[in-house]
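Q: For a teaching session next week I want to show students how multiple molecules come together into a single three-dimensional assembly. I've collected the sequence lines for a complex. Could you give me the predicted structure tokens for the whole thing so I can convert them for display?
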Amino acid sequence: MEKMIEIIDLVYEYRKNEEEKVKALNEVSLNVKKGEFLAVIGHNGSGKSTMAKHMNALLLPSGGKVYVHGLDTLDESSLWNIRQSAGMVFQNPDNQIVATIVEEDVAFGLENLGVDPKEIRKRVKEALEAVGMIEFSKKGPHLLSGGQKQRIAIAGVIAMKPECIILDEPTAMLDPVGRKEVMDTVKKLNKEEGITIVHITHFMDEAVDADRVVVMEEGNVVLEGKPKEVFSQVEVLKDLGLDVPQVTELAYRLRKEGINIKEDILTVDEMVKCLCQ
Amino acid sequence: MLRDITIGQYYPAASAIHRLDPRVKILSTFVYMIALFVVKNFVDYTYILVFLGASIFLSKVPFSYMIKGLKPLFLIITLTFGINIFMTKGEVLYQLGPLDITKEGISQAVFMATRLILLIIGTSLLTLTTSPINLTDGIEKLLNPFKKVGVPAHELAMMMTIALRFIPTLLEETDKIMKAQMARGADFESGNILKRAKSLVPLLVPLFISAFRRADELAMAMEARCYRGGENRTRMRELSLHTRDFIAFIVTIFVLVAVLVNRFA
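A: Of course. Below is the structure for the complete assembly, covering every listed component.
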């Protein structure tokens, strides 16, 4: 499998005050494979957001290396190539929309790359179609809902034809409807366009459908594996102060009560099948 | 309560004036202003009036909108009128205590007030018929040649765009903070001006803090999308000049020439 992002012994330190230095990331190593849907979970301050910002050179390592598509993020000459191939979507939908009209905002990244105006129009249209927002192309972003704004932000990233999208808690400020909109869009892009997804979240339910889950704690990766492998370790996750998906929690409690049931149940369907046997 | 504030005063309509290139409209407004200040007698106002009247007619913007634009400047107009009427020396018509009203004063006052009113209506026609985005694009393109002497054309336009983009967001936020403070007993509506101004402090402090945080996040998001200033940047929307733009500009220049000829010849 080709590596999309390679993180080797990444350390990130920042100064809390004059003397004290804090390590937000402590020798993290992680590979993101091409075409993969990777979910990163962990609670506030676990370093997941800091790690995400290293993946497109918004932050630079204090120690260790980060390679995006084989390019070293410390090499300033490849900075724009890195940011073009690894797009990023942030948490607050309001604070990442630049222009006063939806299509202008989607065009923003392409304008920065110096793409020909005709080509920009074409790609903006394609991107808006891909996120299902084409009918809003002439609207003002302040008239849209949170989920719609976030889809515009995603359109702005995919218009730049990235190979990888890093989503830094894109659903944290959305209502359930908006969350579903965004997650459906992201999954579709992963399946249909083959875009690598790094999805950072604290909603466990969103991590269930990922190809792989990484759990972070205090600047380190503590658990890694397929969703079934990770979420079956209910006690470890609880010790870390994390939730497990509701159905997994139910399965865990049922097992505790002595009912013989598999421990790696993640979805309602699986649960129904298992109980009705 | 803050939501119904409209951004700028753009009046959307499909008119000949609306369709003109923003650059032409900005330059024409400048030419119009120059012409207005060249005029030295009432007769020459005819040219200006005909030109302005035709533009307003073509723009399909209701005349009441123009009048609305005058309201906030009513005080300045009255002041100009008052000063001119009393301060001009000449044939005394009427004495009001130590102040003389002269024949020249009246004519000067009417003349100046007319100039001011025409100036305001003329310039507001620009903002009424040009959307903020078009206006920004126009300003950027017009300032481009001055980049070499250090005018940050792209940066100014980007600042305007971002300001326009965040007006509704910050208004919404103000509303939210206001409600939050009111829920905790803040009073924004009673008391004298001083007291009311003071009560705005707990509103402005959180608003500024949040605006700075937004600025920080927006800068990060812009960088993530490869923003690196104006160099090598292209635009999706290109401005292009049509025949109608040339005609409009020639007509405007004609008005200026007519006024100049009448004044100096």
